[in-house]
Amino acid sequence: MNAKAEGPWTNCPILINQKQFEIILKTSRVYNRDNKEMEVVCCAKENFVSLILGTIGGILFAIGMCMCLLPEWGAFTQGVVIAVIGAVVLLILLLVRRKMEGKPAIHLSGKAVGSVLLGVVGALALGIGMCMVMVWNIMIPGILVGIIGIVLLLCLIPLVKGLK
Question: Quick one: pLDDT at residue 39?
Fold first, then answer.
C-alpha cells in the first residue's frame, strides 16, 4: 500500500512528524498524483525545540540590543536586562539541545574554547565596525573593521565543520 500526497505542490518535499514517518516506513513509499516518488522529511523533536528556543532567545536579545543602542528609546537599563534574558535563553537552548541529543552538557576542549573565542572576537569586530559606521560616522575604517569581523566569523565554518 502506498501513501498518496495531495496538495498544490505535490512535487515538493513534504514535512511530516515522527508518527507519520513510522507509518510511511510500514507502507513503503510516498507518491504524488503523477505516481512520482516524493522526498519525505521528518521533523525531529530536538529541531523543533531548537527552533522555538532560538527564535525566542534571538528576538529577546535583538530587542534588548536595540533598546541599548538607540538613544531615542531611552531604555538602556531595560535593554540590558532584556538582552541578558535573551542570552540566557540561548544558553539554555545549547544545554537542552545537547541533552536531547544524549551528549554531555558542556565539553571543554581546546578546539571548543578557540571556536568560542574566535566567534566572540569576530562578533565584536563586526559590531565595532557597525558602530563606527552608524554611530560615530567613521565610514571607510568602519566598513573595513566590519569586513574583518565577517571574515573572522566565516572562519568558524571550516574550524567547526571541517573541510570536505
Answer: 55
